[in-house]
């Protein structure tokens, strides 16, 4: 395959962010030996002329070689042609269902949405212009009509509704996921696809809301792409073309297992869990030592999110350190090691809990409860009503841009 990677002008920020993100990743070579997932095959694609310059490259990230697909490899006319005989059934209309369905529809694919009738998602889809009987259906009807079935239900609902899915997964159809969860933890989910269909994954690395807003800005989001079963021989082309159609900028190759392990660790860790724990710990110490709420909040959250973290996003940690005073830099260089030592064992414990399935069992148990939505709201209310975040509400009102409004 002729591999040539051309950096387009439209995505320098996304690529930069991707490079930084990938550099920070430390791929484990000791993934659970119980789950064997095949890696992506690299067949020469019949959809490209031999002389065509492909926008794919194996990049070297600090000695680890990774394959990256670029959206310009699949111009709109090309994927429209590829999917011209397909009906894309987006099952579920939460954050991902909403963003992916609207992007694919705007990109000219034949999209239908399948959700339970009368539910929140149904009403949201109606507001977005999907029409019952035309492109909005019950889950069962959408599964029947779809040739490419994109499973965007909550992970717990994917387990619950699997018996409905399996009836419609006939030869020639394709099953797509945007998370490795259901397939990798099959012993808990019972999600075991028929062996005669393609099973692919396109997992945008961000919320569906951001996927949509980046699309509307004429940009794109980075996604992971993986193949679980390639029966047609076209699975990787299909997955990348589909990924581009739903709004991906760059797609980096992974496996179902690596995606779900990294994702579950990330959201429990730095992205959501660890960040709340760290903010709260510092805030409480400042408060206990006599600092008023606004000062504790400003030094913990406001300066981080408004000033320093965007600098990390733009050019990396060293660059952010360099933008700070010599006093701040000296202290940070001494103290980051203490935080590293305190936190590394917690991350090790977290990874093990993901790899041995404990996290999955908890997710399925909690999120399958009939009172799941109310229970979640109670826990979020506890965070919302805690002093730190009530203070945040007041501080946010005092941001300079609010004053000029
Ligand atoms: N959110 C993200 O940032 C993100 C990023 C990457 C990947 N993912 C993955 O994308 C998938 C979808 O996640 P999401 O965040 O978009 O949505 P979600 O909030 O997890 O799920 C929402 C959808 O599931 C439906 N649903 C839930 N329980 C159901 C049941 N018992 N019967 C029928 N439908 C049911 C909801 O319909 P109703 O409104 O009718 O309840 C709604 O359409 C998951 O695999 C997730 O891990 C998410």
Stretches with pLDDT under 50, minimum 5 residues: 1-43
Summing up helix and strand content along with how strands pair, one would put the structural category as alpha/beta
Task: Write down the overall geometry.
Answer: globular
Mean pLDDT: 89
Radius of gyration: 23 Å
Q: What is the straight-line distance between the termini?
A: 55 Å
Major sheet characteristics = 11 strands, mixed
Bound molecules: NADP nicotinamide-adenine-dinucleotide phosphate
Helix content: 40-55%
Q: Strand portion, in percent?
A: 5-15%
* Number of alpha- plus pi-helical segments: 20
Strand segment count: 11
Q: In which order are the strands of the major sheet placed?
A: 1-2-3-11-10-9-8-7-4-5-6
Task: Quickly list its features.
disordered N terminus; eleven-stranded mixed sheet; binds NADP nicotinamide-adenine-dinucleotide phosphate; 405 residues; 11 strands; alpha/beta
Topology, element by element:
Blueprint: E1 3-4, H1 12-24, E2 54-61, E3 64-70, H2 76-82, E4 88-91, H3 95-106, E5 111-114, H4 120-127, E6 136-137, H5 139-145, E7 148-151, H6 155-160, H7 162-168, E8 174-177, H8 181-184, H9 186-189, E9 198-204, H10 208-216, E10 221-229, H11 235-245, E11 248-253, H12 256-268, H13 273-288, H14 293-315, H15 317-322, H16 326-355, H17 358-367, H18 372-384, H19 387-397, H20 400-404
Helix pairs in contact: 2-11, 3-10, 12-16, 13-14, 14-19
NADP nicotinamide-adenine-dinucleotide phosphate (NAP) is lined by residues 92-97, 115-116, 119-121, 152-155, 157, 160-161, 178-179, 181, 203-204, 207-208.
């Amino acid at each position: 395959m002729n591999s040539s990677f051309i950096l387009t002008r439209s995505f320098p920020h996304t690529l930069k962010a991707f490079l930084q993100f990938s550099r920070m990743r430390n791929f484990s070579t000791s993934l659970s030996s119980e789950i064997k997932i095949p890696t992506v095959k690299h067949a020469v694609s019949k959809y490209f002329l031999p002389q065509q310059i492909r926008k794919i490259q194996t990049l070297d990230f600090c000695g680890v070689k990774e394959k990256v697909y670029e959206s310009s490899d699949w111009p709109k006319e090309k994927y429209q042609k590829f999917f011209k005989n397909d009906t894309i059934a987006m099952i579920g209309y939460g954050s991902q269902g909403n963003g992916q369905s609207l992007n694919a529809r705007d990109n000219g694919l034949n999209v239908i949405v399948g959700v339970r009738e009368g539910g929140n998602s149904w009403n949201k889809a109606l507001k977005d212009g999907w029409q019952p009987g035309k492109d909005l259906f019950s889950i069962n009807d959408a599964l029947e009509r779809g040739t490419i079935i994109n499973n965007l239900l909550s992970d717990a609902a994917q387990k619950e509704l699997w018996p409905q899915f399996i009836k419609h997964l006939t030869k020639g159809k394709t099953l797509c996921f945007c998370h490795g969860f259901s397939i990798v933890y099959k012993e808990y989910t019972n999600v075991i696809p028929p062996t005669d269909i393609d099973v692919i994954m396109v997992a945008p690395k961000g919320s569906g809301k951001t996927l949509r807003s980046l699309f509307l800005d004429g940009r794109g989001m980075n996604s992971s792409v993986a193949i679980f079963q390639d029966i047609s021989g076209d699975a990787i082309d299909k997955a990348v073309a589909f990924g581009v159609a739903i709004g991906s900028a760059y797609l980096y190759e992974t496996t179902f297992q690596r995606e779900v392990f990294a994702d579950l660790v990330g959201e429990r860790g730095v992205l959501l869990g660890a960040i709340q724990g760290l903010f709260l710990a510092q805030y409480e110490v400042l408060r206990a030592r006599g600092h008023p709420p606004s000062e504790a909040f400003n030094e913990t959250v406001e300066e981080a999110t408004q000033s320093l973290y965007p600098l990390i996003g733009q050019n990396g940690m060293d660059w952010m350190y360099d933008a700070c005073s010599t006093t701040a830099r000296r202290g940070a260089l001494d103290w980051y090691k203490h935080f590293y030592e305190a936190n590394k064992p917690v991350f090790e414990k977290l990874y093990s809990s993901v790899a041995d399935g404990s996290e999955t069992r908890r997710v399925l148990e909690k999120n399958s409860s009939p009172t799941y939505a109310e229970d979640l709201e109670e826990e979020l209310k506890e965070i919302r009503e805690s002093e730190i975040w009530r203070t945040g509400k007041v501080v946010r009102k005092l941001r300079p841009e609010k004053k000029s409004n």
